[in-house]
Specification:
By secondary structure, the chain is of the alpha+beta class. The protein has one domain: Lipoprotein localisation LolA/LolB/LppX (outer membrane lipoprotein receptor (LolB), chain A, Clam), CATH 2.50.20.10. It has 4 helices and 13 strands. The protein has a 13-stranded antiparallel sheet, with helices on one face. A hairpin with a 4-residue loop joins strand 4 and strand 5.
Length: 248
């Protein structure tokens, strides 16, 4: 009997370790470490990205984004016959209207709130509790053949984002959003945003290090939205022109 008890105790002990390895904080911590660690990520003060999408008809869509920690998120998208710019600051936001000659219009306060998460340059998973977010581990799912942990994050701003983190690489490989607000992860969320208020998947891949050792996905694709976007330039902690804070 004592031998049986010993075996059962060992099984329970191993099971305990397995469950512990699947806690939401453990998964998030491994994700943070895969991107270089908390200290490395928290050293990010600004990010500049340039990306391009080549459509099936050969037309190009280009995107430029600037982020300054807790101060600015600016995205400029050019699509051949026109362009659109979105600017978010802690107190105000603007969006240009291509149908009105590109004139800027103020973002209403009720729509600005969810967009404030864009000001987080490291992404909401890093120090999520300190930022006022709550996280829940929902088990695992298979994403394009990869086993991934599924995490639901309720943001301080009130909206929710679901993240899928590869169980082998610990990189973010997909996020699911409802509506146009909500940031991506530290290695993702380069500025692509779902149009309107629908639910959409954003997939991240082709992770590479910048010259100064920051890890980012260089390919992003949006489910049901055509071709993926390839990052052609990512710069960290470069000076940002003060003019970019203004609707112009």
């Amino acid at each position: 009997m004592s031998k049986l008890v010993t075996i059962l105790s060992a099984i329970l002990l191993i099971s305990g370790f397995t469950l512990q390895a699947q806690t939401v904080d453990d998964v998030i911590n491994k994700y943070v470490e895969a991107l270089g660690g908390k200290d490395k990520l928290n050293s990010i003060q600004s990010i500049y990205q340039e990306g391009v999408t080549v459509m099936a008809n050969g037309n190009e869509i280009t995107m430029k984004t600037w982020k300054v920690k807790d101060k600015l998120a600016r995205r400029e998208v050019s699509f051949g016959m026109g362009s659109q710019t979105t600017i978010v600051t802690p107190t105000e936001g603007w969006r240009s209207n291509p149908r009105n000659g590109g004139a800027f219009e103020a973002i209403p306060a009720d729509r600005l709130g969810p967009l404030l998460g864009e000001l987080d340059v490291t992404g909401p998973l890093v120090d999520y509790a300190a930022k006022g977010h709550t996280a829940e581990l929902l088990g695992k799912e298979t994403i394009d053949g990869a086993e991934a942990y599924k995490i639901k994050l309720k943001l301080k701003q009130g909206n929710e984002v679901t993240y899928f983190i590869d169980s082998k690489t610990w990189y973010l490989i997909r996020e699911t959003r409802t509506g146009g607000g909500g940031p991506g992860g530290a290695g993702g969320g380069g500025g692509q945003r779902p149009p309107g208020d629908g639910t959409i998947n954003i997939n991240y891949s082709n992770y590479q290090k910048t010259e100064d050792g920051y890890m980012f996905p260089f390919t992003m694709s949006m489910g049901g939205q055509g071709q993926g976007m390839t990052m052609e330039k990512i710069e960290v902690n470069k000076p940002v022109d003060p003019k970019l804070y203004k609707p112009e």
